[in-house]
Structure formats: structure tokens, C-alpha cells
Prior knowledge:
With 253 residues, the chain is mostly helical. 76% of the residues lie in helices and 0% in strands. The chain is built from eight helices and no strands. The protein has helices at residues 3-27, 35-91, 96-115, 131-141, 148-173, 181-201, 206-229, 242-250. The radius of gyration is 27 Å and the shape is rod-shaped. The two termini are 43 Å apart.
Amino acid sequence: MSPMAVAWTAFGCMFGGALVGILCRRLLPAHHLADESRDAVKLVMGLVATMSALVLGLLIASAKTTSDTQSTEVVQLSAGIIELDRLLARYGPETAEARAALRDAVAAAVDRVFNKGDARPIGVVQNTGSSSFDNFSNGIVRLSPQNDTQRFLRGQILQLGSELGHTRLLMYGQRGSSIKWPFLVVLIFWLVILFWGFGMLSPANPTVVAALLIGALSVAGAVFLILELDNPYSGLMRISSEPARDALAVIGH
């Protein structure tokens, strides 16, 4: 399900729970709503509210960390690509084929990730069988240094290429959701119970219904933000593609 669909489902469950609570208030015998009973319900609601707030905060922090980490890694990888291209340029004209292959590979990756919405990180060294990545790798392997400067640059190129490949693998390994769905399901269940209690303890009038509606919308909005942040390569809050596009604009020239 999309983040929007999950958020609307959560809203429906919470507001529905509130309406059921209002209905229960009307149907329950009067002694069930006595002060002692109301106090007990409030204590339970306080416990559920505390647990819900803790889990909600945990999920928000986890999703924000995922988004920030992926954004930082895109910036680092883009900077590394630029540095790798400059090292190849300094090596000499014999790296022209490798630089062209690097540009083609990065262009294809940027298009796949940021234009087509494939939630996979861009990379430099990738075992995909694509001709661009193969040509780039083969071009580096075929480099034959003729002097100390080229030997030094070749070592730097190989080291940087290995580091970029390691970063890409880390990004690829983090592409899945960091949100554990049981957490989210239990959280929504607690929130439904909480809104049910709100409805049962509140008088049935338009002001109360409007307040419950706004509250359910607000919490559903938080659920939406969590799921959006947890999918950094897609959705309304996707990470910026500018670092990768900036790198693409300067390499290979």
C-alpha cells in the first residue's frame, strides 16, 4: 500500500473508533459511566497514549534517520564520482573511453532512480551486466602506467572506485523499509483504542466530533510523514537529485 493509502486507512480506523466510542456512550448503562468507571478508563487511556507517543516518536526518528542517511550517501557518492572523473582526466587521454563509460553509467542510474522512480541508489561499480559499467571497469583494468605519476593515479583510481563501490553496496542494502510493519499495526491499534476512549468519555455534539476528526487527521498525517520519509527515493518527500545531476553535468568533459 502507498503511504497515502495507509494514512487514510489509519484515519478511517481512528475516526471510526471515535464514532463507536460515542455510540457506546449512548448505549451503556448510566452506572458504567460513573466517576469511578471514567477514572479507570482515563488511566488506561493515559497508559495507551504514553505507549503510542513513544512508538510514534521512535518511528519518526527511524524514518528521519533513514532519509538523512540516504541523502548524505547520495551527496558523498556524487562527490566521489566527480573526484574519480578528475583523476581519470589527470591520468591521460587513454582514459577517455573509461570516462565516457562512467558518464553513461551514471546517466542511466540517475534516470532509473530519479526519473523512473526505481527506489535503488545510484552506483559506480555494479555487477549488473550493463555495457556501460562493464566498459568502465574494463577501461580501468586495462590502464598501463608509463611513469610514476600514472602509477600513483592508477592506485588512487582503484582505491576510490573500491570506496564508491562499497558506498553503493551500503545504499543498496538500505533500500528496504526501515519501518517494521508490526510496529505500525500495533501503533494504529493503540490509536484506535485511544480515540474510542475519547469518544466514549465525550458528549456527542458537533464540537466534539470536529475535534476528534481533526485529531484523527493530525495523527494520520504523522503516519503519512513516517512512511514518506522511509521511502527516500520516491513520493512527495524524496531526496534531492541535484547532487547526482550536478555530478553528471561535470564528468566526462
